[in-house]
Amino acid sequence: MSRILVTGGAGFIGSNFVHHLVEHTDHTITVLDKLTYAGNRASLDGLPADRVTLVEGDIADAEIVDDLFADADAVVHYAAESHNDNSLNDPRPFLDTNIIGTYTLLEAARRRKVRFHHISTDEVYGDLELDDPARFTESTPYNPSSPYSSTKAGSDLLVRAWVRSFGVEATLSNCSNNYGPYQHVEKFIPRQITNVIRGIRPKLYGAGQNVRDWIHADDHSSAVLRILESGRIGETYLIGADGEKNNKDVVELILSLMGEAPDAYDHVTDRAGHDLRYAIDSTKLRTELGWQPRYRDFESGLRETIQWYRDNEAWWAADKDGVEAFYAARGQ
Ligand code: NAD
Ligand code: DAU
Question: In the chain, which ranges are E strands?
Fold first, then answer.
């Protein structure tokens, strides 16, 4: 049994990972989370108190970080400012958390000699043309577009440098778009589901031709656990489940799964610098570490997710009006 420190474990993917660890391992888990607007204690409700502890704090606070690393066998680093639209509005917190925060964690990993896994995104690779047969691989050159993705790219490079220069025992993973329970209502899929629940028409940026490569958050968690257990130090693994869909098709599917006319949505102002297409080739993870996704049917995963938002209105209701006011001010 190990002690795992999960940064950002009160956020969307981090909390899904904590639930996954509780269900599939004997590890004890400490969550370090600043509880920003995106963190939610309620995402950890129902987990056993003797296995999961939440510490409220900033990953850029070297003192708290050092204390927690002293008691950890491994660290999985999810904490980040994660939303592209926010990064276009105010990039500064992205630098503080994604760059300085990651640097602070790496220094602690170096001092305390703790195994480190860094969570990153496929957005570091930029975007692909719609008709390009290529997908991202571990050797695709970095070419990030937004303040968010450029700070994630910077954090990845810091991790690689700390492995090479200081011998930190780290692995990295870059995953495609996640969906599932506990995702903040600012993000595409939960925004549209909660819009329909509230009687608001879904909002599609531009023509909606942009493609995202969807993976269920629980499949992301199983892949991260596999890398933590068996990944080679210094290596990067791409995580994806062959889930390419354009945004228009996803909105139409949400509407029809929720019993509405599939064209009952609005086209709104496009995102500045909007990446066209992401697509992951996860051959390395599948062949080297034998990982496979469990959710292979997007429609049934989406149906479950819609039901989760219907059943858990108390989890998201307090955030909804503020998010819609933010978007309305941007014409989105
Ligand atoms: P999220 O915004 O839902 O959660 C982020 C969490 O980090 C929140 O709980 C927040 O309170 C916490 N946090 C933010 N700043 C902090 C700080 N300074 N110190 C401590 N905690 C802090 O994000 P998410 O969608 O769960 O993404 C988690 C990670 O996964 C990020 O690193 C992101 O880049 C990466 N990722 C996300 C996706 C996706 O589709 N959402 C895909 C690939 C990779
Ligand atoms: O690819 C991984 C990335 O996926 C992660 O690194 C990010 O943290 C995560 O937020 C996500 O980034 P995206 O920008 O792709 O996700 P978002 O949910 O913001 O948007 C998904 C797509 O939907 C994108 O093409 C923009 C579009 N969109 C978004 C919103 C919020 C709309 O059309 N309408 C909307 O209301």
Answer: 3-7, 28-33, 52-56, 74-77, 115-121, 170-175, 178-179, 203-205, 211-213, 215-216, 236-239, 244-246, 266-268
Tokens representing residue 246 in the block:
């354009």
Closest to 21 in 3D by CA, of 39, 9, 12, 34: 9
Domains in the chain (CATH in brackets) are: 3-179+215-239 (3.40.50.720)
User: What residue's CA is closest to ligand 2, atom 11?
Assistant: 177
For residue 317, give every residue at least 6 positions away whose Cβ sits within 8 Å of its Cβ, in sequence order, or none: none
Distance 187 CA to ligand 2 centre (A): 6
Does pTM top 0.85 for this prediction? Answer: yes
> Of all protein residues, whose CA lies closest to atom 30 belonging to ligand 1?
78
Please give the DSSP secondary-structure letter assigned to residue 146: S
- What one-character DSSP code corresponds to residue 101? I
Tokens representing 152 are 């994630």
pLDDT in tens, 195-247: 999 999 999 999 999 999 999 999 999 999 999 999 999 999 999 999 999 99
Backbone angles phi, psi at 311, to 5 degrees: -80, -15
Instruction: Extract the tokens encoding 159.
Output: 């991790």
Q: What are phi and psi of 72, to 5 degrees?
A: -115, 145
Tell how far the Cα of 131 is from the centroid of ligand 1, in angstroms.
31
Q: How many CB atoms lie within 10 A of CB 133?
A: 7
